[in-house]
């Protein structure tokens, strides 16, 4: 079998039973992304409340920065997860990795919901919060790469972009759920009740979500690509080292790292920055304070489905180039609208930004995972994606909140996206087009 031969055993869509099997496999891949982003979004929306619970002895701005710094901890832990779980996924299998990562993420989040606050155990409270966020990050670092590889290796070649794109859709759905539940609690409970017990509820919901994900994933089949690799004794002894070995491999890793930069900055700004930006800079209160993130996420959702579908027809690179150029040119006008003070114009700016960010996010994972051969696919995706997200995504809420406070400017988000679009667009041009082609086995 050549390195680009179609893989026997890949699920097709020729009969009803095959379609049902493919839906089960797709659900198994998507559920972890939904759980991951639900948990991360809950923390982002509750950042102001958590600042009061775990950092009560400092002023509100410093407390918020402390809470956002803890938010970033999970992202800086992601690269470690990418290395560890990448090696596990490429050596032991995709299926087992997915079951473990969704369980660990949910257990860590549930334990966060059970933590005593600073008033009860003092400095131990924020220390334990940091440790649990670290566990969340390590788990999430393996989740995305394992899920993307799993779905890509099961999907029909001509629909792989759409199927892998559904993982990004799952992240948006998880973010919406993770924004709505704490948002409703913040609107209906008093500040005292939220700081006393209300903040725990969304975190504890992670446990049943994780158990559902574990139940689904334990019943999935291993991918035909990995099974063939194992039968042929083709697994790398050290997948991480194999992914980093050779000049062409290192060049690919650099291209992939840069490719993710603008995706990480734009998407995690929506998830982690807009909730606090809406209250501190836009001076929105009540229901309006949650509207910016929800509007941008709704636009993201539409663009991700459309962008993934289109990428199977015109290719990955045209969609990435169009959306990346759009972010470069239109990020500043979008933020002018977002900071206009008129809710209708704010909504227009958010829709424009969300559509562009969503279209790029729809294609990034398919384009990335298709670059790597089966023996290092999880490791290659995990190393590049998680390093880029840690550097450009996880730091965004803290960095932009700090820069906004130092400069007094409400446009720092636009400049950040423009800068990283300039990093990503050359990588798109250097990318090998893979749409409609068999995976490298």
TrEMBL record:
Mode of membrane association: Multi-pass membrane protein
Q: Where in the cell is it found?
A: Cell membrane
Please provide the record's keywords in A-Z order: Cell membrane, Membrane, Symport, Transmembrane, Transmembrane helix, Transport
Q: Which Pfam family, an example, fits this chain?
A: MFS_1
Span-the-membrane segments of this chain are 25-55, 67-88, 100-121, 127-150, 162-185, 197-216, 252-270, 290-310, 319-338, 344-368, 380-400, 412-431
Instruction: Identify the InterPro entries for this entry.
Output: H+-coupled_symporters, MFS, MFS_dom, MFS_trans_sf, Sugar_transporter_CS
Q: What does the function comment of this entry state? A: May be a proton symporter involved in the uptake of osmolytes such as proline and glycine betaine.
Please tell me where this protein is predominantly located. Answer: membrane
Task: Name the GO cellular-component terms.
Answer: plasma membrane
Origin organism is Actinomycetospora corticicola
Q: Which GO terms describe its molecular function?
A: symporter activity
All copies of domain Major facilitator superfamily (MFS) profile, residue ranges:
25-435
Signal peptide annotation: none
Family the entry assigns: Belongs to the major facilitator superfamily. Metabolite:H+ Symporter (MHS) family (TC 2.A.1.6) family.
Query: Which protein, by its recorded name, is this?
Result: Putative proline/betaine transporter
Top-rank taxon of the source lineage equals Bacteria
State the PROSITE patterns in the record: MFS, SUGAR_TRANSPORT_1, SUGAR_TRANSPORT_2
